[in-house]
Prior knowledge:
Elements: H1 2-92, H2 98-125, H3 157-179, H4 185-208, H5 230-248, H6 264-282, H7 291-319, H8 324-338, H9 347-372, H10 380-398, H11 421-451, H12 458-463, H13 465-470
Helix pairs in contact: 1-2, 1-3, 1-6, 2-3, 2-4, 3-4, 3-5, 4-5, 4-11, 5-10, 5-11, 6-7, 6-8, 7-8, 7-9, 8-9, 8-10, 9-10, 10-11
Amino acid sequence: MKHMVCKCCLLLAMALVAVPLHAQQTSPAAAPSSQSSHSAAQASKATNEKLAQLDQRVTQAQSSADNAWMLVSAALVLLMTGPGLALFYGGLVRQKNTLAIMMQSFALMAVITVMWALVGYSLCFGGSGPVIGNFEHAFLRGVGAEPNADYAGTIPQMTFMIYQLMFAIITPALITGATAERMKFSGTVLFMILWFLVVYAPLAHMVWGKGGFLNAALGGRFSTLDFAGGTVVHISSGVTALVCALYLGKRTGFPKQPMPPHSLVLSFIGACLLWVGWFGFNAGSALASSPLATSAFVATHFAAAAAALSWSVAEWIKNGRASALGAISGAVAGLVAITPAAGFVAPMPALIIGLVAGTCCYWMVTRVKAIFGYDDALDAFGVHGVGGTIGALLTGVFATQVINPIFGAGKAVGGSDGHWGQVGNQLVGVLVAWVFASVGTLVLLKIVDWITGVRVTEDQEIEGLDITQHGEEAYNLES
């Protein structure tokens, strides 16, 4: 028994000694485990920081690329007015009116720019009213390097502002094609200033501005699809051109006296510049260097080519030959018609839009104009008013969410998606633009006629507007 007790005491003593030894042996193993956990946390934090930095660099790269593309696009759109439109119109008038029509485009580049900086941008893109903006950005207050997320989240608002300015410049310049060779320079400048404020600014806000009555993406009542200006630019300027032509009356000698273009070479060069500049007009309206910009670029080119061909074919059938004037007029008609649709349709529908526009605009210019007898001198209404209307309606037919899911992923956009109600929305937009432009123009013409007069005298018209309005001649033919 005594021997058994001694054994138990010995075992107990050994156990008491083993416990601290075990603690001493396991403690070093626990330390590396704690250190390993701490190291893993630090590594995870470093990885997250690197990912955040990488994401920031990618965002900055995207912003830089988008900004570069939009600045180039702004320059391309300005190129459309001067020299593009100036040369196109300049070649179509008679020699004695060449400088006068070019000066109108150039003057608008200066006048509208100043108006835009003072109040124009704010009236178009300030606030969220249904008809017109506010004075939130008057004198470009608050317009700087930070993006405006409502319109273009990856480029400075200053870039967005200058890009939209170029649209505001060319729109009134298009109208001068109808008033060519008979409207006073003073009357033209005053009318265009008032027209910009009363007609263009409200239409631009209604279609493109936040909360605008016709805006498709930012809370509009009727979601009218207008990617780059079918209603805002072309219908408004084309309908205004028709009203101006009717109000001013016919040129002296029209239609009995022949009034052919004095230089189709100038017009040809101008048309080619318009075609190139239109890529900035339409593809730039994606507001990013994105796949949507590519789609709009392709649609623009295809429609222009198709319209040039369809106009030429129609002319060939009627006259037995295709003319250079017809080809360039057809190309412009196609560019006009694809403008509202460029960012919504696939390449094949773009060809169809171009074919339809070229044929219809040819018919308007050669047949309808002759039937009604109005003197739309350079066919601003026949090409821009009619072409813009055709394009706006066909946008509702061919728009698809595969190209631009403007209403949300998977949601139908146009008739090709099964959403035929969009054609009705397009019709509302067209009617609003027609009524707004025609009524506003008529009222403004009355006001300007009372203040400065709108038409030159018959003697001044016969002598030519280059001399009577500017005291200069386009060509010095003295040897």
